[in-house]
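Bump. Still looking for EamA family transporter structure tokens.
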Amino acid sequence: MTNTIAPSPSPSAQRGLGRRGWTALTALAPAVWGTTYIVTTELLPAGHPLVAALMRSLPAGLIALALSRRLPSGSWWWRSLVLGILNMGAFFPLLFLSAQHLPGGVAATLGAAQPIAVAVLAVIVLRERLSAWRVSWGLVGLVGVALVVIGPGAGFDAVGILAGLGGALSMGVGVVLAKKWGRPEGVGPMAVAGWQLTAAGLVLLVPALLIDGVPSGIDGAAVAGYLWLGLVGGLLSYTVWFAGIGRLPVTSTALLGLLSPLVAAALGALLAGEALSPVQLLGFAAALAAMLAGQLTPRRRSTER
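Sorry for the wait, here they are.
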């Protein structure tokens, strides 16, 4: 008996783009999400995280509803609300709160724990067998991200740590439930993304206005930032993400989320004009290896002696 590595079989992987094509397309979503930190810090008004979360969700959701011309029906009203809160309505504010209380590297590393949470939740919710292969690579990816983004002077704050872990768990549950529930027959991923983004935006509307208020002095850069977060980081990326969740194994899809902190770190280094250290390059290699290996499944094959 020898071990070989082969893609996990999936009937849907034989249709359309195929497994590799859908993996590459779905990976674009977390790659785009990796631009959120730099866009928020460089273009948006400071001190308005809830408004940023609102602008990332509600306009994009309404546009998706207008384009898809589909509203939820039956149980999908409450399912869309639950998924919208988990994937966006709770996740976005927790993400911003973690970033406010922790160095960006620490916050990103906490977010990279999401694939491990998804692997455990898949066993509980989807009744899948625990994949030691993907859990192991999830741990490798977590360490890799930590090597890339955590600096020697990183500080720790209890509120920030709880917010970061809460955000990872929130979206982890959302990803698993999205896989469990799928989407109604004949309804495309843009409509499902629109339902969730709109639900998240409506949940965030009152808190954003009461707590943050309307930012003053919104300039052209801020408008560009809001458009990027809403249209590309919200509408397009979540449409692709939910399409991928429906076609790929849920744990391997979650491992694609490692791209988000890596892209954020790469953009930070590029804009700061700083070269990555050998340790950071090692972390990049480890995280990328974990992401790629997580798309494969170990399979035993009998061979003649």
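Residues 21-295 form one domain.

Edit: fixed formatting.
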